[in-house]
Structures are given as structure tokens and as C-alpha cells.
Specification:
With about 90 residues, the chain is mainly alpha-helical. The protein is about 65% helix and about 0% strand.
């Protein structure tokens, strides 16, 4: 019997976009759609759709979509101060 070596598939990036970009996607997905957003961020339509599914399942979508501009700025500033801001 020949032993078959199992290979791990490459791990997918859960959040292919930074925080500010994910907020933008959540806010404008219904207006721009996955094709336009994918082109804007250099991602495929499938990547944007997958991101939306992930954000909806985690609750991020509703949080980001309903942020006021002031709340958004506070969130970004806090993330920058903590070193967790990713663009």
C-alpha cells in the first residue's frame, strides 16, 4: 500500500480588505454591487460576495452599514491608536 501524503489547502484570507474598505463595502454593496466593488478594490466579484456573506454571518455587515460618519471616524481612530488598523 502506498502512503498518500495529505497536503493542507492554502488558508483563505477571511478579510481580504482592510477595515475602512470593509465598511465601504457594507455601506455601498446595495448601491454599487459586487462587480463594481470588486473592480474598485481589485478583487473578484466572488471575493466581494464571499466577504459579504462572512460579514452578514458575523454581524459585521449590520454594524458597519449603520455607522454614522462620526462613529466610523471614532472606530478608525481607535483602531489606528491600538495598531489594529489595516488598510
Amino acid at each position: 500500500m502506498i502512503a498518500v501524503e495529505e497536503r493542507e489547502s492554502p488558508k483563505r484570507q477571511i478579510n481580504p480588505l482592510g477595515l475602512a474598505d470593509r465598511v465601504y463595502v457594507a455601506r455601498y454593496y446595495e448601491y454599487d454591487g459586487p462587480n463594481t466593488l470588486g473592480a474598485l478594490f481589485g478583487k473578484s466579484k466572488q471575493t466581494i460576495e464571499s466577504l459579504m456573506k462572512t460579514m452578514k454571518n458575523s454581524g459585521e455587515y449590520d454594524i458597519y452599514r449603520n455607522l454614522t460618519d462620526e462613529e466610523y471616524e471614532k472606530m478608525i481612530n481607535a483602531a489606528e491608536r491600538s495598531g489594529k488598523y489595516d488598510m
